[in-house]
From TrEMBL:
Listed HAMAP family: NADHX_dehydratase (MF_01965)
Catalysed reaction, written as an equation: (6S)-NADHX + ADP = AMP + phosphate + NADH + H(+); (6R)-NADHX = (6S)-NADHX; (6R)-NADPHX = (6S)-NADPHX; (6S)-NADPHX + ADP = AMP + phosphate + NADPH + H(+)
Source organism of the structure: Tessaracoccus oleiagri
Name of the coding gene: nnrD
Residues reported in the UniProt entry to bind AMP: G402
Similarity section: Belongs to the NnrD/CARKD family.
Cofactor(s) of this protein: K(+); Mg(2+)
Role, per record: Catalyzes the dehydration of the S-form of NAD(P)HX at the expense of ADP, which is converted to AMP. Together with NAD(P)HX epimerase, which catalyzes the epimerization of the S- and R-forms, the enzyme allows the repair of both epimers of NAD(P)HX, a damaged form of NAD(P)H that is a result of enzymatic or heat-dependent hydration. Bifunctional enzyme that catalyzes the epimerization of the S- and R-forms of NAD(P)HX and the dehydration of the S-form of NAD(P)HX at the expense of ADP, which is converted to AMP. This allows the repair of both epimers of NAD(P)HX, a damaged form of NAD(P)H that is a result of enzymatic or heat-dependent hydration.
Identification of the protein by name: ADP-dependent (S)-NAD(P)H-hydrate dehydratase
Length: 459
């Protein structure tokens, strides 16, 4: 997994490096990385650098000096002042300045790349009007933008998104920051490239799951395995009206590798067995259960029966409306933003503005792990630790994807994984299936790709 650090954590890590060796020049290391990425993005043609007044601008200026050795580089000193040493280096290398915002916008017509070095680490959301207008013009002209550390206009630690650059690529240093992985800011960062500048970063309570983690952790059978050791998952999902939710959850569970699936929900048994003849009807020995998908409405009696099972539960959809007052340790709640808003008694817009904070609060309040579903998916534990799942294409934003995901997570819980791993791995493997088979596949078709994805995790 990769660590994500806040602005203050990054400052502390940099300070530790300087304390150990005061002569370390982190700015030139960062600038060299920016210049490399710039050359990869646009090997030729004029480069226009938007220069801010602080160290981020200094990174951009030293990168400009390197780039000017082989191409035309223009500087817009958007704040009217700049890092003194960086500006001297850029001027000495032959960089030329554009004098005003209108001139800067005019040069977009022939620019091959814009480097956004206006604000960086620790910045707050928002841009001055002239810079906001320029950022919008970059989008209108479809000029590639390389952001230094983070797109200017975003807050490093996340938060609301107003006027900001929409980066094609963001070159950040040492580790990702919250704005790179948490929506709505993350969508403005483009592809994030982490540059090693020799700053060790500490472990934090926010990290990103990688495909290699799935390969290391996915439960695989051995010669001694049987259906019970692989995990039996019980699904109380579906209804006469929403029988499809039951089928989707069962499909997710089976294709993720369940040793056995039991079904005790409200969908017609003939429909279930006609599609999945290996399913065993009724309750019985199981290691985890999935409840709520396709119930049609909150059902206190069904929830009470689920609680009495004494199993780790995946609680989805309608079951989220009838949670018990406590005793949810080891459970996994799987709300989307609207459901999480109802759990917290806030507006959906509040959840979408601060998804990390909302997921953490729900996990703390209920004493359960929370998987907040959406374009980016966050797994929050009661301790406050959050894991960001592998991100998939937006094609998965369709009815039924959550039903499949609940089944996948149920299989992983039944295999003995802790709730946070089951959630992060379940969301990630579904995302990988969609990545590797892009397009508008319905959720039940995507489940058919899960075995191949799982089998190739080590490839």
């Amino acid at each position: 997994m990769k660590t994500v650090v806040t602005a203050q954590q990054m400052r502390d890590a940099e300070r530790a490096v300087w304390d150990a060796d005061p002569d370390v020049d982190l700015m030139t290391r960062a600038a060299a990385g920016v210049a490399r990425v710039a050359d990869e993005m646009a090997p030729e043609g004029p480069v226009l650098v938007v220069v801010g007044p602080g160290n981020n601008g200094g990174d951009g200026l030293f990168a400009a000096a390197t780039l000017a050795e082989s191409r035309e580089v223009l500087l817009w000193l958007a704040a009217g002042r700049a890092h003194d040493e960086g500006l001297a280096a850029a001027r000495s290398a032959g960089c030329r300045e554009v004098g005003d915002p209108a001139s800067a916008r005019a040069r977009l017509a022939d620019a091959s790349l814009v480097i956004d070095a206006f604000t960086g680490l620790g910045a707050r959301p928002g841009l001055p009007p002239d810079v906001a207008t320029f950022a919008a013009a970059c989008e209108a002209w479809q000029v590639p933008v390389l952001a230094v550390d983070q797109p200017s206009g975003l807050g490093t630690d996340g938060g609301p998104v107003g006027h900001s650059f929409n980066a094609t690529v963001t070159a950040t240093f040492a580790a990702r920051k919250p704005c790179h992985v948490v929506e709505p800011a993350a969508s403005r960062c483009g592809d994030v490239v982490v540059q090693d500048i020799g700053v060790p970063v500490p472990a934090t309570d926010l990290r990103i799951l990688e495909e290699s983690d799935l390969a290391n952790w996915w439960p695989t059978p051995d010669a001694a395995s049987d259906k019970y050791s692989r995990g039996v998952v019980l699904l109380d999902t579906g209804s006469e009206r929403y029988a499809g939710a039951a089928l989707l959850g069962i499909s997710g569970a089976l294709h993720a590798g369940a040793g056995m699936v039991r079904y005790a929900g409200g969908a017609p048994s003939g429909l279930v067995l006609g599609r999945f003849p290996s399913v065993v009807l009724g309750e019985g020995r199981a290691q985890a259960a999935v409840v709520g998908s396709g119930w049609g409405e909150p059902d206190e009696a069904r929830m009470a029966r689920a609680v009495e099972l004494g199993l780790p539960l995946v609680v989805d959809a309608d079951a989220l409306g009838v949670l018990p007052d406590g005793g949810m340790e080891g459970w996994l709640l799987t709300p989307h933003a609207g459901e999480l808003a109802r759990l917290l008694g806030v507006g959906r817009d509040e959840v979408e503005a601060d998804p990390l904070g909302a997921a953490r609060e729900a996990a703390r309040r209920h004493g359960a792990t929370v998987l907040l579903k959406g374009a980016a998916q966050y797994v929050a534990e009661p301790s406050g630790r959050v894991t960001v799942a592998v991100r998939g294409p937006n094609w998965t934003a369709q009815a039924g994807s959550g039903d499949v995901l609940a089944g996948i997570c149920g299989t992983l819980l039944a295999a003995g994984l802790p709730a946070w791993k089951a959630a992060a791995m379940g969301a990630s493997v579904q995302a990988l299936a969609a990545q590797r088979h892009p397009g508008p596949y319905p959720p039940d078709r995507l489940t058919e790709f899960l075995p191949t994805v799982v089998a190739n995790l080590d490839a």
